[in-house]
Amino acid sequence: MRLLLAICLLVGRAWAAEGAAVPSPYAIDIPKWFHESFLDIPEELRDAARERKRVMLYFGQDGCPYCKALMKVNFGEADIVATTRRHFVPIALNIWGDREVTWTDGRKLAEKELARVLRVQYTPTLLFLDEGGRVALRLNGYLAPDKFRVALDYVSRRKEKEQTFADFQAGRAPAAAGGTLAPEPFFEKGSIDVPRIARESKRPVLVVFERVPCGDCDELHREGFKRPEVRKLLASFKVLQVDALGAGPVVAEDGRRETARDWAGRLQVNNTPTLVFFDAAAKEVFRVDGYVRPFHLASALDYVASGAYRGEPSFQRFVQQRADAQRAAGQAVDLWK
């Protein structure tokens, strides 16, 4: 009996350890070098600090093409893998998962509850935590390898204590002399005064933050803004284009008069392009600040223009429902197109 009890105890411990270490199912394979965690984040922070590393939380989901790009493209680069393994403890979480996570404040939450509490609207979302459990950098959505390298460098060197990520990036890729932002016929002309424009038009305001040079901005104009569905949805907005590094004056959503660069910094515009949506009362209601393909660009515009954001706080659920409705109507849906 004692032997049987001992065997059961060992099997139970092994089962518990395996259950805690195996991540929720993903259609996209997580790299084997990701940390097998019991999801006690305070403990992970302490262990990481002893190794002079930081915790990197990855929020993903099945069928996410941007997650696939992160795993296959970014983590397909040997130097990115080496840097990540050297400086970070990467932990994978599923935004629809049920595993219990002990958060930095001691709360025990299912993965999906934690994603909701942290307002994870995009996958992938990466949270880089400092030694005290504060967010040193948050990446909402996918960043291409070159930008991702800069992000890893910023956090691994503890630069958040000295400057914003936007300023750090600007130092790495200074604005092109004499460069101009790409024009579009739907961009509003004249001064940037968000409260006045929202009040007079009684429509939501979309502010497109860009800079020069910016390859993703060029792609947004070349592909996203050219789609008929996108152009139709844009008609529901007053669309303003702003140089995120510009010195020109703006009247911000709260009536503050400041430079475009100061406004972008205060709004924590860490990537370009970033699309910030304000309602008719000039209150921010949504934003897109990661790499975005036309399908998700149209979905974001629809999410705000239709007012769906008021009743459905999860953009991901809205996207799923929208894609399902299009498929049911016989339309082909490709999330990467």
Gist?
This protein has 337 residues and is an alpha/beta fold.
Question: Can you walk me through this structure?
Answer:
With 337 residues, the protein is α/β, with parallel strands linked by helices. The chain has two domains: 21-162, Glutaredoxin, CATH 3.40.30.10; 192-328, Glutaredoxin, CATH 3.40.30. The chain has helices spanning 2-21, 41-50, 65-72, 78-87, 111-117, 145-156, 165-172, 194-201, 215-224, 228-234, 260-266, 294-305, 308-311, 315-328, and strands at 54-60, 88-94, 100-102, 108-110, 125-129, 135-140, 192-193, 205-210, 238-243, 249-251, 257-259, 274-278, 284-288. Helix 4 (78-87) packs parallel to helix 6 and helix 10 packs parallel to helix 12. The longest helix is centred in the N-terminal third of the chain and has 20 residues, at 2-21.
List the helices and strands and how they pair.
Elements: H1 2-21, H2 41-50, E1 54-60, H3 65-72, H4 78-87, E2 88-94, E3 100-102, E4 108-110, H5 111-117, E5 125-129, E6 135-140, H6 145-156, H7 165-172, E7 192-193, H8 194-201, E8 205-210, H9 215-224, H10 228-234, E9 238-243, E10 249-251, E11 257-259, H11 260-266, E12 274-278, E13 284-288, H12 294-305, H13 308-311, H14 315-328
Parallel strand pairs: 1-2, 7-10, 8-9
Antiparallel strand pairs: 1-5, 3-4, 5-6, 8-12, 10-11, 12-13
Cα gyration radius (Å): 22 Å
Secondary structural class: alpha/beta
Would you give the CATH topology of the largest domain? Glutaredoxin
The CATH architecture of the largest domain: 3-Layer(aba) Sandwich
Choose one word for the global shape: globular
Number of domains: 2
Task: Give the uncertain stretches in residue-range form.
Answer: 1-27
Task: Give the helix tally.
Answer: 14
Strand order of the largest sheet: 2-1-5-6
Give helix % range: 40-55%
CATH class of the largest domain: Alpha Beta
Q: What is the count of β-strands? A: 13
Q: How far apart are the termini?
A: 62 Å
Sheet with most strands: 4 strands, mixed
**The CATH fourth-level homologous superfamily of the largest domain:** Glutaredoxin
Query: Taking all residues together, what is the mean pLDDT?
Result: 91
Give the SSE order as H and E letters: HHEHHEEEHEEHHEHEHHEEEHEEHHH
